[in-house]
Amino acid sequence: MKAIIIGCGVSGLSTGIRMIEAGHDVEIWAKDLPPKTTSNVAAAIWYPYLALPRERVLAWGQRTLEVFYGIAGEPDCGVLIGETIEVFRQDMAEPWWRSAVRHFRFAQPAELPPGYTTGYVFETAVIDTGIYLPYLMRQFEGMGGKIIERDIQSLDNALAVAETVVNCAGLGTLSFMQDTELYPVRGQVLRIEKPALKWSMLDDEEDEAGVLAYVVPRVNDCILGGVAQAGEWSLEADEATAQRIVERCALLAPEVRDMKVLEHKVGLRPGRSSVRVEVERLPGGKALAHNYGHSGAGVTLSWGCAEDIVALLKG
Fold it and tell me: At what angle do helices 54-71 and 298-314 cross, to 10 degrees?
């Protein structure tokens, strides 16, 4: 059965792979291909950030993390398994996503940066998207999938030639379909030389400038972030924001202040009141599926959502 997926970020590629495995003949149509996708800007660390509803996010995230554990041993995949510490300036109970991770503990006082009182240490996956997305493309094309670069202004062309169309276009959905719940959540990060850190570090409490802090060492570099600016469409890097990100991250890991900045990156997360994973049955028996609105958790939810799409299409 012919299927067309709109979008070649992490959601589109993951869905494409699972659909080929389920017996579909799959093409991906996309205006932007890696490395020019929003997914390429992501840090990316497995962490269910901003996405709702929690019960579905928990299931999708747990399944995705299981897949990352399986992928991590493959060459040139960009997936690293290791510890992350999330820190707080007040006492905290266990997080709502605790059951999704295999190893979790509260941090010891000596492990906390100055000024912090509580922390979680948990095992998770860091996904170096500059390596991981080409890996997914090789997997998809190696299984017989085709990737076609084209601007999509309407779904009619895809529905005219395929029995199934899956929208994985993220914020690009607004170029061919109305969704009043979909909005941009602007992110800005710095890519720096890789410092010698034992783990990734997170502090998601925004300061008065709306800046939070995450330090994510990857295969060959490190990402410093960031912001989550709802409703902002600008793709230009703001220098004042970048400086503030470095200062916030230096509170977690002072050595990042001395690392060379390699690149400034800006992306627009697809914010939505809830992640949209569903299938519409159209007149004539065709199917239009939706897999978008993952906000700051596209990588974190990618495999779980992809597998749900396949299951819904079978149903």
Answer: 100
pLDDT digits (tens, 9 = 90+) for 190-210: 999 999 999 999 999 999 989
Angle at 147 between CA 141 and CA 153, to 5 degrees: 160
Q: What is the pLDDT of residues 153-188, one digit of tens each?
A: 999 999 999 999 999 999 999 999 999 999 999 999
Q: Is the peptide bond before 53 cis (omega within 30 degrees of 0)?
A: yes
Length of the chain: 315
Residues 6+ apart with CB under 8 A from 86: 119, 120, 122, 201, 202, 203, 204
**Sorting pLDDT into bands at 50, 70 and 90, what band is 245?**
very high
Characterise 203 by phi-psi region: left (phi > 0), alpha (psi -120 to 50), beta (else): beta
Query: Is residue 229 pLDDT above 90, yes or no?
Result: yes
> Which H/E stretch holds residue 146?
strand 146-149
H or E stretch including 265? strand 261-271
Tokens of 87: 């820190």
Contact (Cβ atoms closer than 8 angstroms) between residue 278 and residue 312: yes
In angstroms, rounded to a whole number, what is the distance separating the alpha carbons of residues 263 and 29?
A: 28
Backbone angles phi, psi at 138, to 5 degrees: -65, -40
Rounded to two decimals, the pTM is 0.96
CA distances 245 to 121, 194, 261, Å, are: 22, 16, 12
Residue 131 sits at the vertex; the CA angle it makes with 291 and 267, to the nearest 5 degrees, is 55
Q: Residue 70's closest CA among 58, 83, 79? A: 79
